[in-house]
Every structure is written in C-alpha cells, then in structure tokens.
Design a protein that fits this description.
Helix 8 packs across helix 10. About 30% of the residues lie in helices and about 25% in strands. With about 325 residues, the protein is of the alpha/beta class. Strand 9 and strand 10 form a beta hairpin. The chain has a 6-stranded mixed sheet, with helices on both faces. It has 2 domains: about 200 residues, Rossmann fold (3-Layer(aba) Sandwich); about 70 residues, no CATH class. Bound molecules: adenosine-5'-diphosphate. The site of adenosine-5'-diphosphate (ADP) has 11 residues, from helix 1.
Length: about 325
C-alpha cells in the first residue's frame, strides 16, 4: 500500500480543479542518479518544461520512474539540480510540493473505504478541512468522472476507476505540476482510452508529466515529448519533430506469410496486418527493405521505434 500525501497544507477555497494558475517553469539541469551498488539510473538529464503535457517515453528500465521520483521530491539527484520557478527543489522541496500532484506507479487504495471517504482522508492529510475539503473532494471526483461512484467501496472498483481515484487525489491541492507515472499499466483498452481523454482534459494551464512505455498513451495528448533510454535523453522536442525524423525511414511492404518471420528477424517492424494474399508490414529502416516496398508517412509509433533503432545501431 502506498498512500501518497505530498502536498503541503493548502487552503484555497473556490479554486476550480482545471484552473490552476499559470505554471512558470520546471528546469532539470544535468541530473544524475545512482542507486547504491548499481550503475547510473540517470546519466545526465537536461529538460526545460512549461505548461502542457510532456509525454516521457522510454522502454522499461530507461530511468523514467527514477526521474519522476526526483521531480516529485521523493529522491535527490546524485548530482545536478531541479529548479521549480527558479527555486532548487532539493533545498526547498516545499516550494514544489505545494504545487505538486503525484500519481506513482504503485498507487494503492484502502479497499474498505468508499471513494469519497478515501479522498476526504487524503484531503485531511493534505491540510484541507471542513466545507472546503468536502467541496474539493466533490470537484475532484467530478473531474475524473466518478461522482456517481463516491459512495462505492474502492475494493469494488475496476483498475481504471482506481487510477481515476489516483488522479483525483493528485488534484486535491489544485496542482500546477501533475506527475503521472505509467498510469495505464493493467488497464483494459476502453479504460486506457478513457484515461487518455482525462489527461487531455486536465492539461489547461498546468504542466502534466506522463511517463509511459506505450506510445499511444501520449499520442493524442502530448504537446512535448522526451524519450529516454538507459538513463539518457534520446530526444527532447515536439511529437511533430520526432515524426519528421522518421520521414524517409518508414515503408509498407507486402510479403507472403512464409516470409514474415524472416522479415521480422531482419528489420524493425512497427505494425503488421493480414491482407489478401499475405501480410502488410510497416518497416522502419533507412533504406527500402525490398524493391517492392513503398514509402509511408510515419506516425509517432514509427518515429519512436526509429529513434530507438538508430540508437541501438552500432
Ligand atoms: P523505468 O521507470 O523507465 O522503467 P526505472 O527508473 O524504474 O526505469 O529504472 C532505471 C534503472 O534503475 C533500471 O536499471 C533499474 O533496474 C534501476 N532501479 C530502479 N529502481 C531501483 C532500486 N530501488 N534499486 C536499485 N536499482 C533500481
């Protein structure tokens, strides 16, 4: 069980959930992190972030959660620093905590409590009380589409509903910075889709950082993208800029079913679909995999694979 209660007591009545004050800036400068007796989990990360949704993409083990924990002031960088509106958060963590909502990867709930009780409890932990707390709980439940489930026990919730409760608790203090770590793990496709819409709706003037290894989690919502691998930043820019990089490296290639295994062994394949007379492959490669392959317009998934593949190339 991991009940998160990070925000310093705040008492701001009548603050609508989606109307956070304009966020200034989150600056990550040369951040490195090493777990005891391990190689570096972060090997020097630099980012400058403003309002919008940052999709933080990377394969498992890339260092995303480690970075999220540092940004959420739960861990300190081994070197480098994080500045929130110019203030070093290692020195003054409360400056950021007052503006922070965090949904960690291993968010746990008390199954015997109702959603309303659970949020009221966390509101109290965060320093909200009385009518103000009740109003915030109601607003946050409404914001995540759970008003009708306020009196139901969390033990009876689906995974997607539980994640929405996780977002609701992160919104209690009307955060300017919302950090969401791998939120769609274990969700079914419909819940996953709903969760993506929720993130888009919540963006507004705040900065949302959403880490995931699934490109489609951030495809619709991300205004900025950072791609990590092995503790390093491979890309920092807009989704459109990443797609541009794969412009001449995406191909459609129809092969016979018997050729699919060979094609998979020889190339990076982003998608495959059965078509009359064979299988249509999307191949990510600098050169056409075959004379009968045709150039295709890359999407974000193609571009992400291209980035990882070019990184892996000797
Ligand atoms: P991601 O979130 O992208 O999957 P993590 O930040 O969890 O990546 O992990 C980055 C690296 O740090 C991995 O090599 C992982 O094995 C290592 N790591 C993560 N947590 C710990 C820990 N508590 N102790 C030691 N090593 C860890």
């Amino acid at each position: 069980m991991n009940v998160v209660a990070l925000a310093r007591p705040t008492a701001r009545p009548e603050q609508p959930v989606t109307a956070a004050a304009p966020v200034a800036e989150l600056l990550v400068e040369g951040v490195r992190y090493r777990y005891p007796n391990k190689s570096e989990a972060l090997a020097g990360i630099d980012l400058r972030l403003g309002p919008g949704v940052l999709g933080l993409l990377g394969p498992n083990g890339a260092g995303k959660s480690t970075l999220m924990r540092i940004l959420a002031t739960l861990a300190r960088p081994s070197s480098g620093r994080v500045l929130w509106n110019g203030v070093d958060v290692a020195r003054e963590p409360n400056a950021l905590r007052a503006s922070l909502g965090y949904l960690p990867q291993d968010f746990g709930v008390y199954p015997a409590l109702t959603a309303g009780e659970f949020l009221a409890y966390l509101a109290a932990v965060k320093g909200l009380s009385g009518a103000n707390a009740s109003a915030r709980v109601e607003r946050c439940l409404a914001e995540v589409g759970l008003s009708d489930a306020a009196d139901r026990r969390l033990g009876d919730f689906s995974g997607g509903m539980r994640q929405r409760v996780g977002i609701a608790q992160a919104l209690l203090n009307d955060p300017q910075l919302l950090i969401v770590d791998e939120p769609t793990v274990g969700l079914d496709p419909e819940e996953r889709q709903r969760f993506r819409h929720l993130i888009t709706d919540l963006a507004g003037a705040r900065l949302i950082i959403l880490s995931t290894h699934i490109v489609s989690d951030v495809e619709a919502s991300a205004t900025a993208l950072a791609v990590m691998d092995k503790g390093r930043l491979l890309f920092d820019g807009t989704p459109g800029e990443l797609i541009e990089r794969a412009r001449h490296c995406t191909w459609e290639w129809r092969v016979a079913e018997s050729e699919v295994a060979g094609a998979r062994a020889a190339h990076t394949i982003s998608q495959s679909a059965r078509v009359p007379g064979g299988v249509l492959l999307r191949v990510i490669a600098a050169r056409a995999p075959s004379a009968d392959a045709t150039p295709a317009n890359p999407d974000l998934e193609d571009a992400y694979l291209w980035l990882l593949a070019s990184r892996a190339a000797p």
